[in-house]
Amino acid sequence: PFFQAYCVTEPGAGSDVAGIQTRAEKKGDEYLINGQKMWITNGGKANWSLLFLKFSLKIPSKHKIRETEIKFSFRCAEVLQLYTGPWSPASLEHQLYRYRLTRYPWTSPEELSSKVVLTLIYILNSQVAAGAVGLAKRALDEATKYALERKTFGKPIAEHQAVSFLLAEMALKVELARMSYQRAAWEVDMGHRNTFFASIAKAFAGDVANQVAADAVQIFGGNGFNTEYPVEKLMRDAKIYQVRGGKA
User: Fold this and answer.
1) Which family does it belong to (predicted)?
2) Residue 19 — φ and ψ, nearest 5°?
């Protein structure tokens, strides 16, 4: 399989791409890259890494932020960290000290600016929102199935008003979140800037994923806190959708 990593976050900068400090300095036919990147999902197994950096050039700062694809040597990956979340992916910290880049796909540093970088981030935010909706839908499905099977007082708990109302609210939130990310994706398909709708989708869908997952655990009761059932992991996984990709 082909894996790609997305290298934006640094110890002092994340979605604030204007604050990144990783720099590339031209030396003859090469670029020397110095800096530090962290929280790089798939960093340990990526075939290619999409690296965001600044060029040490005397041009307006808004034009300095660039992206480029480079193939990392594993010697650059010095710190391996694992975190709780979907599939528990490896998150690497790349220490880039005088990393030599001899082949690069651009013709001039002025080609891309921070506006382009932010556009890519908002496109990714739509994808993050879609993932959040998928998790919320799974939690809703699991809770619905359990509520139809689990019986108390001689009938399925789904027939108790408190549980049925909760399931209805969960379904409402899932469908609204789905429409929000689809609107953001549609704006991209139409060639429009989707900053506004992507921000709404990511913020709303991330909250919905956490709310619906927590409600699913509530419907499962004590079983919801048991690793033999899936909803406890969904609740743990949901948190990343309020964090991943930076603030909405």
Assistant:
1) Belongs to the acyl-CoA dehydrogenase family.
2) -95, 0
